[in-house]
Amino acid sequence: MASRKEVLNKVSKIVPPMLEHFHKGMLGRVAVIGGSEDYTGAPYFSAMASARLGADMSHVICEPGAGQVIKTYSPNLMVHPYMRQQKNMGANETIDSVSEEVVAMLSRLHVVVIGPGLGRDPAMQETCARVITEARKKDIPFVLDADGLFLAQTRPELVEGYKQCILTPNVVEFGRLAKSKNIDVNAEDPEQLCSKLSKALGGVTIIQKGSKDYISNGQQTLISDSEGGLKRAGGQGDTLTGSLATLLAYRKAYHDRIWDHDNSLSEDETLTLVAYGGSAITRECSRLAFKEKGRSLQAADLTDHVHQAFLTVLGENTKL
Question: Where in the cell is it found (predicted)?
Fold first, then answer.
């Protein structure tokens, strides 16, 4: 098995250098879809992690009530109040009309994160299901987390066999996904669980979050076990989803050859590298934030450390 240093050296290959001829949008157009009226922090943390890691354009697509709040958090994010919970549907609005407006955003995006602050509202869930269906048709990568994973659990056909998606379940979410595929987490070898669930879902990439992060596409499994913080504040997983989104955008830039490189990495390999890199950066964010804040650490503290974590884990790509 490759060492951590060897894997991270490969991850760094997909990070574009900063070149004068690049223009706005080339290094990542990312959207986080979620943000119900009760949950405004999660989509913000995800989108800001994406921005801090270097995405050129970071969007949040959310409920109007959430949008008004998120706009006050940062002027750097582009906030689109297109989502609707069932109870907040206007007289002339339907799931069809709402979904069409959200799906129309896809042509402007490289990557989508689905789930932060989404909730279980049927209209919100159905809209995201339609976004996933259209994203697959357009070959757009997406990350599923939180209540976005509820879709993978209840409607697995949405993600099955789609190699351009990453699922990021915590221990409870992983258990629910495994149960939906008749996998007994207590009867299986913990080292093989992530791989088995990935295979059951047709080879999607899964990051099984925990004291160690297991990363598998069913064929290859990596373990990300670098030091993290000891505080388990809610919302730290949103830094992971945002980091993954930007790295997925960088992966597209790598395969589109927007700069000169040796083109030595396959698309399957770079997807696994993105997952490992996102995990490593998030764990380093957690370590740095915990070192500073200790037991008072909150999810927002990780945001300020994203860039330093990137520099520590990957370093800046200065080879031309």
Answer: Cytoplasm
Residue ranges for the known binding site are 117, 170-176, 209-213, 228-238
- Cβ atoms 46, 25 nearer than 8 A: no
Binding-site entries for (6S)-NADPHX? 117, 170-176, 238
DSSP string of 43-101? HHHHHHHHHHTT-SEEEEE--HHHHHHHHHH-TTSEEE-----GGG--TT--HHHHHHH
- Token couple for 213: 């992060």
Task: Look up the pTM and report it.
Answer: 0.97
Question: Amino acid identity, residue 295?
Answer: R
Q: Which residues are annotated as a binding site for ATP?
A: 209-213, 228-237
pLDDT in tens, the chain (320 residues): 689 999 999 999 999 999 999 999 999 999 999 999 999 999 999 999 999 999 999 999 999 999 999 999 999 999 999 999 999 999 999 999 999 999 999 999 999 999 999 999 999 999 999 999 999 999 999 999 999 999 999 999 999 999 999 999 999 999 999 999 999 999 888 889 999 999 999 999 999 999 999 999 999 999 999 999 999 888 899 999 999 999 999 999 999 999 999 999 999 999 999 999 999 999 999 999 999 999 999 999 999 999 999 999 999 976 55
Distance CA 180, CA 150 (A): 10
